[in-house]
Amino acid sequence: MISLSNITLTFPDGDSRVTAIDNASLEVTRGTVTGITGPSGSGKSSLLAVAATLIAPDSGLVSIDGVDVTGMTKVETARLRRETVGVVFQQPNLLPSLTATEQLTVMNELGQRKSRRRHLVVQARAAELLDAVGLSGQRDKRPHQLSGGQRQRINIARALMNDPSVLIVDEPTSALDQERGSAIIDLVLQLTAERETATMLVTHDRSHLPRMHDVLTMTDGRLLRSLSFSQ
Ligand SMILES: Nc1ncnc2c1ncn2[C@@H]1O[C@H](COP(=O)(O)OP(=O)(O)OP(=O)(O)O)[C@@H](O)[C@H]1O
Fold first, then answer.
1. How would you classify residue 48: left for phi > 0, otherwise alpha for psi between -120 and 50, otherwise beta?
2. CA 218 to ligand 1 centroid distance, Å
3. Is the model's pLDDT at 92 over the cut of 90?
4. Separation of 19 CA from ligand 1 center, angstroms?
């Protein structure tokens, strides 16, 4: 579970500061998806960055699985992030020279002491995840050999490599047509249920919102529940 309480985040803006998040609170339980929508510049990406522990808020509390992130050192936060948070950015940012499997394994193989056992575990995990996102036949393909939807599936599989309890997804459908976008949302919903992640998903496309467990709208940094969508 992830819980954000009374989060405020500002950025420098000339001589003053702009408020990107204004006293926002939310809680996402495992196995559910909270959709976040709102106009451009309303603070959605900032909220995801705070939830992913990539940015520390000016004030407020972030807690992941009951562990208070506020007050942790940068090293402690980075470790918690690595072990408990998966992030799907809007652009897949895949490395052009790597195969689908390697996109998933590269971070887990880098910097680790070489061990055959560990290598096999990482390879098996990547294979299982590529299968789960419907790409078992594309394991050896490089990004230019894949469609936009397939690249986004790799992006999602990669975020799940470390078996995170929190999944942060930023605009996963923005580069896709309606049908492929809808299939990606279905996949996120399915993986959230199967892997019991607490998922926060930002989308501009309101047609996806009725399928989410909870829907919040951001306006000028403030977060409000959208009762018309919430189940
Ligand atoms: N690194 C930064 N430095 C300064 N201001 C920033 C920074 N990041 C975001 N902002 C400002 O914070 C506010 C919220 O931006 P944010 O990117 O979170 O909005 P958003 O809802 O995700 O927008 P979009 O839908 O266009 O991606 C905006 O006024 C933006 O200009």
1. alpha
2. 12
3. no
4. 9
